[in-house]
Amino acid sequence: MKAQINWRHVSDTLLIPLYCRAKETLSEDPIIRDQKAVEMLEDIKASLAGSKNRIHRRILHNRYNNMLVVSLALRTRRFDRYVDDFISRHPQATIVNLGCGLDSRFHRQDNGTLAWFDLDLPEVIRIKQHYFHETDRYHFLPFSATDLGWVGKVAESEPSHLMVLAEGLFMYLEEKKVKELILSLRDRFPGCELVFENTGKFWVKRMKSGYFKWKFSRQLGYSEEAIFTFGFSDHREVESLGEGIRFLDEWSYFDDKHKKMGWMNLMGKCSWLRHVQWVLHFRLGGQPSP
């Protein structure tokens, strides 16, 4: 493949989930299996050689903590399971994957009949086009998630059952924009389902402190632009945005009690630690799906 990628115009954090999926795939008794991620990462490493960027160097030399790898693998598996459940009920469903990055979820979960939209910034989609190709059921949307022009593009396909995914995205966006997005989905696609990862509002405020910015930079190589900016306090705050927003369920990294989490599973006994970062699932308007 040998991609020649100019990383100056792309967020470096794009590579971390890819790295984690690839590394977990190659581990003993993997939580997820994503061979495409392994192939992509090996190819991309060629374009990172000699880089002085902290994230690039960590990836090239496998210096990310294994607990990060495990936790992101568990998150990926959970989102996969949401999709599996949805398309088991609606085999011709439409899935929109917001902030898709270099995700290969469609190719892992395609049932042969669903329609899929991968959405990310134009510069990310250009990289993705090197590794994946659009088909009559698999489409790219080169938009910011908060540019609601993409909603009209999806509406043109007249989806009968829609699920929208936002894995590792909303915490980087503006509060007003996230709320507008949720209400727009409710109004345009009554009865659709939304699954997103959330960082608790209390923790978002703490992450804006100098200490947490230093910690993110030291442990992950993040720049200040990559620090979390928004989060809901709980599912009730989301429901309060407007009529018809119905909470379905939630998932925490500790809920699976996976052996690879080790002693960190003990943290799941504490509610406020379970809700540092977790996944929320809603139905937006319309009638309950069968």
Question: Helix and strand layout, with pairings?
Answer:
Blueprint (H helix, E strand, L loop, with lengths): L14 H11 L9 H14 L5 H7 L5 H24 L4 E5 L6 H5 L5 E6 L1 H10 L6 E5 L6 H7 L6 E5 L8 H14 L3 E8 L1 H7 L2 H11 L14 H5 L5 E8 L18 H4 L2 E8 L6
Parallel strand pairs: 1-2, 1-4, 2-3, 4-5
Antiparallel strand pairs: 5-7, 6-7
Q: Please, could you describe this protein's structure?
A:
The chain is of the alpha/beta class and 290 residues long. The chain has a domain of 192 residues: Rossmann fold (3-Layer(aba) Sandwich). Helices cover 41% and strands 16% of the residues. It has twelve helices and seven strands. A seven-stranded mixed beta sheet has the order 3-2-1-4-5-7-6, with helices on both faces. The longest helix has 24 residues. The termini are far apart. The model has no long low-confidence stretch (mean pLDDT 89).
Overall form:
globular
User: Number of DSSP strands?
Assistant: 7
Uncertain parts: none
Rg on CA atoms, Å: 18 Å
CATH topology tier name of the domain at 93-284: Rossmann fold
- The separation of the N and C termini measures 44 Å
Largest sheet: 7 strands, mixed
Structural class: alpha/beta
Secondary-structure element pattern, one letter each: HHHHEHEHEHEHEHHHEHE
Index terms:
290 residues, Rossmann fold, 7 strands, 16% strand
Overview in brief:
By secondary structure, this protein is α/β, with parallel strands linked by helices. The chain has helices at residues 15-25, 35-48, 54-60, 66-89, 105-109, 122-131, 149-155, 175-188, 201-207, 210-220, 235-239, 271-274, and strands at residues 94-98, 115-120, 138-142, 162-166, 192-199, 245-252, 277-284. It has a domain at 93-284: 3-Layer(aba) Sandwich (Rossmann fold).
